[in-house]
Amino acid sequence: MKELSRQRCHGGWQCVYSHASESTGTEMRFSAYLPPQAGHAKVPALYFLAGLTCTEETFMIKAGAQRLAAELGLMLVACDTSPRGLDLPGDAEHWDFGVGAGFYLDATEAPWAPHYRMGRYIGEELPALVEAQLPAAADRRGIFGHSMGGHGALVTALRQPQRWQSVSAFAPIANPVAVPWGQKAFSRYLGADTSRWGEWDASLLMERRPYPGTILVDQGLADAFLERELHPRALQDAAGRSGQSLQLRLHEGYDHSYWFIQSFIADHLRHHAGQLAA
Ligand SMILES: N[C@@H](CCC(=O)N[C@@H](CSC=O)C(=O)NCC(=O)O)C(=O)O
Questions:
Q1: pTM greater than 0.80 (yes/no)
Q2: Whole domain around residue 123: which residue ranges?
Q3: What is the CATH number of the domain that holds 256?
Q4: CB atoms < 10 A from the CB of 214, how many?
Q5: 3-state SS, residue 172
Q6: Domains in the chain: how many in total?
Q7: Within 10 Å of residue 177's Cβ, how many Cβ atoms?
Q8: Least crowded by CB within 10 Å, which of 30, 139, 150, 200?
Q9: Coil, strand or helix: which one is 8?
């Protein structure tokens, strides 16, 4: 792992790293905020998965999370949204598929399958690397995200609840099998057999196997993607059927942007800190 930058921030360090990824077969970048407490002890790590078109920088620059993370002693880790630099046919034609749109799943179809393995990357490889190279506690991991990344966070925790002690989401794509963004991505990454898509759909997973803890989800009611792509009601229905403890909060006037995330980031950090406390 190479350290690309390191800058002082709220008594800790804002860093960017790159490494050769086994999951994607490419060089991947991630950013990490190391709170002051990480100077002398292992701290809980909270992973953020960003949305379509974002990079490992977006959350760290726009969410305004570092000040409170420093107070709470939380490490923040933000990865990229797909492999880059492969130049696969069709990987850069659409902003909602391919580069910047890896959907945090493991593709099964050519030409995506050997590289678009963001499920394995975020589920296994990145935490193992972070815990080996940075002062992150291996038994206190949280995950959250926005939109495509909110979907990724929910799916990652629902698929492997024993590995994630806390989870939350901002405006997640709650039921990707039922909406255009999800159908476009899943049909290409996972193939035409829709019976295989459910393993990567947060609402379908939650209905079958609830996560053993409360999940916090915030959604803006002025979000332009709400009706067509996000469907938080599907998550609420799934939680009702499975007994999942879900705190779904709907906010008048808030849209899909990082202004919305910045407005509620403190609640998410406190939610995670509470569940990740040693
Ligand atoms: N088409 C636009 C918009 C892309 C966009 O809105 N991306 C969202 C995530 S959408 C779901 O995953 C985002 O977080 N954008 C970054 C931001 O800073 O707001 C485009 O091409 O930009």
A1: yes
A2: 2-276
A3: 3.40.50.1820
A4: 15
A5: coil
A6: 1
A7: 17
A8: 139
A9: strand
CB 126 within 8 A of CB 30: yes
Sign, CA dihedral 204-202-165-18, equals: positive
Q: What is the ipTM of this complex?
A: 0.95
Ligand 1 centroid, distance to 264 Cα (angstroms): 18
Active site residue 147: yes
**58 ligand 1 Cβ < 6 A:** yes
pLDDT tens per residue across span 53-96: 999 999 999 999 999 999 999 999 999 999 999 999 999 999 99
Ligand 1 in reach of 99 Cβ (< 6 A): no
Query: What CA–CA distances, in Å, run from 263 to 53, 144, 149, 267?
Result: 21, 15, 18, 9
DSSP secondary structure string, 244-264? --EEEEEETT--SSHHHHHHH
The DSSP element (H or E) to which 268 belongs, if any, is helix 258-276
**118, 92 contact by CB (below 8 A):** no
